[in-house]
């Protein structure tokens, strides 16, 4: 195996789960996310000579993001794709009683629906920060947005998420 390929596998491939997670949230469909990640990894490999070092995770996630927007430009812009429910394939812990499992699953479903309903720029920032653990600087690098914009999007995403969550809670209590 050549040195370039070895470095690519060492630096980039550990971040495939993060790439798939972002792609799933951007696309709202896991079957499309797999294709998107495959395309992004291929592009990353082709462009690896241009990688300037540092953390490969934000670099790969920026490529995933760019692949997503490129693909969106090739499709009808406003089609509705059902969002896969999180937890559909999860097996509950054996010590959890059925009521606890049902409540937990319902909360996860509602939270995922609330996140999925966010505008894409807010959802993207929230996923990169809260689910992938990227710093504000890394998110700015991945999205090409100024750090102030990243902070603003995160604040707005959290506020919208809180509003939706509280509205859902009030509605369920009625």
Give the SSE layout.
Blueprint: H1 3-11, H2 16-27, H3 30-46, H4 56-74, H5 98-116, H6 120-131, H7 136-143, H8 147-173
Helix pairs in contact: 2-3, 2-4, 2-6, 3-4, 4-7, 5-8, 6-8, 7-8
Summarize the structure.
This protein has eight helices and no strands. The chain is mainly alpha-helical.
Key terms for this structure?
174 residues, 2 domains, Rna Polymerase Sigma Factor, Chain: A, elongated
| CATH architectural designation of the largest domain | Orthogonal Bundle
Shape: elongated
| Secondary-structure element order, N to C | HHHHHHHH
Radius of gyration: 18 Å
Classification by helices and strands: mainly alpha
In DSSP terms (H or I, runs of 4 or more residues), the helix count works out at 8
Please name the CATH topology of the largest domain: Rna Polymerase Sigma Factor, Chain: A
* First-last Cα distance: 63 Å
Integer tally of domains:
2
CATH superfamily of the largest domain: RNA polymerase sigma factor, region 2, helix turn helix motif
Q: Tell me how many strands there are.
A: 0
CATH class of the largest domain: Mainly Alpha
Portion of residues within helices: over 70%
């Amino acid at each position: 195996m050549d040195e370039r390929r070895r470095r690519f596998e060492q630096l980039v491939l550990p971040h495939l789960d993060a790439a798939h997670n972002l792609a799933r949230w951007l696309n709202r469909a896991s079957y499309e996310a797999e294709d998107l990640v495959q395309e992004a990894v291929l592009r990353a490999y082709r462009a690896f000579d241009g990688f300037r070092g540092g953390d490969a995770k934000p670099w790969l996630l920026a490529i995933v993001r760019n692949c997503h927007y490129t693909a969106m430009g090739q499709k009808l812009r406003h089609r509705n794709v059902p969002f896969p429910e999180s937890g559909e394939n999860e097996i509950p812990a054996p010590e959890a009683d059925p009521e606890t499992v049902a409540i937990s699953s319902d909360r996860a479903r509602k939270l995922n629906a609330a996140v999925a309903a966010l505008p894409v720029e807010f959802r993207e920032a929230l996923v990169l920060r809260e689910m992938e653990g990227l710093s504000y600087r890394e998110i700015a690098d991945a999205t090409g947005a100024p750090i102030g914009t990243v902070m603003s999007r995160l604040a707005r995403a959290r506020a919208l998420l809180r509003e939706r969550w509280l509205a859902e809670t009030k509605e369920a209590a009625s």
